[in-house]
Amino acid sequence: MANGNFETTIGLEVHVEMQTNSKLLSPSPVHYGDSPNANTNVIDWAYPGVLPVANKGALEYGMRVALALNAKISPFIRWDRKNYFYPDNPKSYQTTQSQTPLGTNGYLDVKLENGETKRVRIHELHVEEDAGKNTHGNDGNSYVDLNRQGTPLVEIVSEPDLHSPDEAYAYLEQLRQVILFTGVSEAKMQEGQMRADVNISIRPYGAKEYGTRVEMKNVNSFNYVRNALIYEEKRQAAALRAGEKLVQETRRYDEPTKSTISMRVKEVADDYRYFPEPDLSPIEISQDWIDEVAANLPKSAAQRRQYYVDDLEIEPYDAEVLTQTLAMADFYDQTVQAGADPKRAANYLIGDVNAYLNKTQLELQETKLTPANLAGMVKLIEDGTISTKQAKKVFEAIMDGEEPEAFAKKNGLVQISDTAILLPWVTEVLDANPQSIEDFKGGKDRAVGFLIGQLMKKSKGQANPGVLNQLLMQELKQR
Amino acid sequence: MTFNYFDHDLSDLHQKLLNHELTAQELTQATLDNIAASDGDVQAFLGTNGPEALQQAQELDEKGDFSNPLAGIPMGLKDNLSTKGLETSGASKILAGFKPVYDATVVQKLQAAGAISVGKLNMDEFAMGGSTENSAYQKTTNAWDHTKVPGGSSGGSATAVAAGQIPYALGSDTGGSIRQPAAFNGIVGFKPTYGRVSRFGLFAMASSLDQIGPLTRTVKDNALVLNAIAGFDKMDSTSVESEVPDFTARLGQGIKGMRIAVPKEYFEEGIDPKVAQQVKSAIEQLRELGATVDEVSLPHTRYGVAAYYIIMSSEASSNLQRYDGIRYGFRSPDAKSLEDVYVKTRSEGFGDEVKRRIMLGTFSLSAGAYDAFFKKAAQVRTLIVEDFNKVFNDYDLIVGPTAPTTAYGLGEEINDPKAMYLADALTIPVNLAGLPGLSINAGFVDGLPVGLQLIGKPFDEATIYQAAQAFEDATRWFEKRPAVAEKY
C-alpha cells in the first residue's frame, strides 16, 4: 500500500442539483446564470406567512436516481427541517429528509483502473433544497443571491467503502455517468451542479475503530477531490507516525498549493434540531408510482453500450465514446432510428461532430444538427447519391441546420452514377488519350489513375468514383 | 351618520346595501368615524386604512354589485395576516413598519367577496399570549370593562367586534387565540378544522396548530364569513381538498336528538366556580332544547398544556428564525458582524414572551432533549386525538367552558407566564387534535361574559353552527351591549 501501514477509509456525500422546471418548494424557475435574485419570489425570500408546496417532479427525479443506484425506495416519506442561521438560508432552516430518506441500501459498481469492478454501497439518498449564494464585494458589503435557493438536490451518501483517492475518483466518475443517464441533471461541475463532501480517516491495518475523521465540504472538481485525499492521506499518516493526535475537523482544499487547510475544529457536534416539517404533508409512495417512474427511466450507459456492441456491431471503444453523455447517446440512438447506418453514424458523431463541438465549444444540444439530418446525410452517402468528399460540404451545411438532400441538390453536390451520362465521357477521354490505353495494356496501372483524374475533371468532381472505375475498366478491356 | 353594528347583523346590512338604503361609502365612513371615536377607550386597532377602504367602497358603489353577502361591508384583520402594502407587524418590534408585498389567501378571498378591510387589529406579539398584553405597541382593553384584558392573542379582533366597531374580524387560533378572547368579550369566535382555511399569508407561530377563523357577534354572521374564507388552497399543502358546505344551511334546524358529551375534566382543575355554574346552566339549556347530554372523560386533558407548550414552542422557535435582520424588518443599528446581526437584532426586536418560547422550543428540539420533550409531546398529542375519537364515536358534539375564568385585570397575570399558560387548558386540546371549536356567550358573571365552547368532529363545522345558533336563539345573550357600544 502506498501509505505505509495505514488503511484509508473514505466516504462521500455527493450533492447533485436536479434540473426541474421549478424549485423544490416554490414555483420559481430553476435556471443557472441569471442576474442575481431574478429567479426568486416571496417564498424563496421566506417572507412572513409564506408556505412551501413540495414539487412532485423533484421527488420523481430523486426516485430516478434511487432506482439507478439500486436503492430501496421508502413507501412513506416525511420532510424534516434542519435549523441553522446563515444569510444564504432565508428560512434559517433547510427542508430535507433526515428521518425518512427517499432511498436506502443502494449500490454502485465502479470500474477501477486495474480493470476490477468494486461495489460501493450507498447508505442512503434523499431530496432536499439547495441554499442561495453569499458573495463578499470589494465595497465591504456582502450580497445574497437567492437564485439557487430552493433548487432541488439529491444527496447521495456512500458507505465508507472507498480506500484510496483513486477509488474515490473512479466512484465519482461512475456516479456522474449514472446520474447523467437518469436525465435529472447535466451534473456540470463548473456550475456547481455536482459537489462532494469528502470524509477521510486512516487507521493502522487491522485496527477495529476508524481513525479520526476529517471532512472537506463542497469540493467541486473530481481532481480536487483526489488531490485533497492524496494530501490528507499523507498528512494524517505523518501526524500519526510523529505521535500526534488527529482532531476531528473541517478542512478546505487549496488548489494552488494542492494542500488542505484547517477551517474549524469540531469540539461538539452541530445541533441542527431536526424535526418534522409541519408545513408539508407526508407523502406515500406506492409501488405503482415507483413502477411508473421506472418505466420512464432512460436506459443506462452500460445498457446502451452493450446494445451498441452486440446488436449494432460498434467497436467497444466507440460505444464508450458515444455514451460519454446522455445527449450524445440519445442523439446517436435517434440517428440510428431514423435509418442511418449505425457504423457510419457513429463515425460521424465521434469524428466530425465531436471535432465541431470542440472547435465551437458548444454542447451537442446547442448546435443546429438534428438526428434526422445526420441520418439523411448518412443515407445519401450509403446509397451513393453523394461522395464522401461531397459529404464534407453537406456536413457543414447540416451543422448549420440545412436539410441534407435539398442542400446537395441545390448546390449540385449530387454524385453522377448514371452510365448513360458517364459512358460518353469515358469514350471521349479514352479517344483523347491513346497513349494511356497503350500504357494500361503494357501493365502500367498508373494509367488508370490518370484517366480517372481526367474523368473527374470532366465531371467537375461529381462522378461516382465506384461506377466510373467499373465503367472505365470495362471500356479499356474492349479497346 | 351615526352607526352602530349592534343594530344590524351581516344579513341585514347586505339587504340594505342591495336595496340601496345604504351605500358602501356611508357604511365605511361611519365605521371609520366610530373607530376614530371609540378606539381611545379600547385600543383595538394598530392602524386603519381609511383612504384605501373608502376608495374600495366607492368602486363598489359605482359598480353596484352587492350580490355577495359580504360585499361593501367593513371588517378588520388581525395583524398577523399579510396585507399587500399595508403595514403588518404581528405586533412585534422586529417587523416595525414592515409592508408585505402580497396578500394572504384569506385576504384575497375577502377582497374578491367585496369585503372592505378598514384596519389591522392588535394582538399578542406573533400571537404569543392570552391577554394581548404582549403586543409591542399598545394595550387593548376588554369591551365590557376597560380595566380588564380582552383575552388573546386575537384580543384586538375580539374587542373591536364586541365594542361594535366592526361587524366581524379575522383572528388566528393556535391554542385558543380566537375562542378565549371571544369568550372574554362575549362574542362568537370560531377556530375551524385544521386544514379548512388556508394559512398562506398567516405569520406562522406553530404550523401544525395555527388556524384562521372569524370573530362575529352572531352565529349566522360567523358562518357567512367562514363560507367566504374556507377551502383548499394550492399555496398551502396542509389545506384540505374537502368539499366546503354552506355553513348557514343547517341554521334553525334545532338540536333535538343531538348527542352532546360534557368532559368531566373540563370542570376540574383551576375553574372558577361561578364560571362553572354559568356553563352548567348553559348546558342545561341545551338539554332543554332537546339534546341528550352525558358526562364523558377525556383522560389525557391534563397533559395537554405541557404537550402543547413543547410542540408549539418547538415549531415557533423554527418559524421565527426567519426574522434575522437580513432581508426585511428591523436590524439592530449596532450590528457590526454577522453574529451581531442575528444576536442583537433578535435580542432587541423580540419581546420577552417570544424569547421565552424560542428558548423553550430550541431546548425541546436540541439533540439531548428531543426524545424526552418533543417526541414525548408528539406521543401525548396522539393520545389526546384518540381521547376525542373515542368520544366522537358516540357523540355529535363536546361542550364545556372556553376558559376557566372571565377576563382578569390588565397586568394581573402578565408576570406569571405559567398561570397564563394554564388558562389555555380547555382550548389547547382542540388545536392538538385539529378539531373545529367555537366559543359563544353563555351569560355573565359579575358583569363579565362567560364563554361556552362547542367542539365538533373534523370538518363538521356545520353541526357546531347548528347547535350554537339554537343556543343563541334561545338565550339571546348577544343582544346585551357593553357601555362602549352605547357610548359611540
Automatic annotation (TrEMBL), chain A:
It holds the Pfam family GatB_N. Heterotrimer of A, B and C subunits. Belongs to the GatB/GatE family. GatB subfamily. One of its GO terms (molecular function) is ligase activity. SMART domains: GatB_Yqey. NCBIfam families: gatB, PRK05477.1-1, PRK05477.1-2, PRK05477.1-4. InterPro entries: Asn/Gln-tRNA_amidoTrfase_suB/E (IPR017959), Asn/Gln-tRNA_Trfase_suB/E_cat (IPR006075), Asn/Gln_amidotransferase (IPR018027), Asn/Gln_tRNA_amidoTrase-B-like (IPR003789), GatB (IPR004413), GatB_Yqey_C_2 (IPR023168), Gln-tRNA_amidoTrfase_suB_CS (IPR017958), Gln_synth/guanido_kin_cat_dom (IPR014746). It comes from the Bacteria. Gene3D superfamilies: 1.10.10.410. It catalyses: L-aspartyl-tRNA(Asn) + L-glutamine + ATP + H2O = L-asparaginyl-tRNA(Asn) + L-glutamate + ADP + phosphate + 2 H(+); L-glutamyl-tRNA(Gln) + L-glutamine + ATP + H2O = L-glutaminyl-tRNA(Gln) + L-glutamate + ADP + phosphate + H(+). The keyword Magnesium does not apply. This is Aspartyl/glutamyl-tRNA(Asn/Gln) amidotransferase subunit B. Keywords: ATP-binding, Ligase, Nucleotide-binding, Protein biosynthesis. Signal peptide: none annotated. Coiled coil: none annotated. Its EC number is 6.3.5.-. Residues 330-476 form the Asn/Gln amidotransferase domain. The gene is gatB. PANTHER family: GLUTAMYL-TRNA GLN AMIDOTRANSFERASE SUBUNIT B MITOCHONDRIAL AND PROKARYOTIC PET112-RELATED, GLUTAMYL-TRNA(GLN) AMIDOTRANSFERASE SUBUNIT B, MITOCHONDRIAL. Allows the formation of correctly charged Asn-tRNA(Asn) or Gln-tRNA(Gln) through the transamidation of misacylated Asp-tRNA(Asn) or Glu-tRNA(Gln) in organisms which lack either or both of asparaginyl-tRNA or glutaminyl-tRNA synthetases. The reaction takes place in the presence of glutamine and ATP through an activated phospho-Asp-tRNA(Asn) or phospho-Glu-tRNA(Gln).
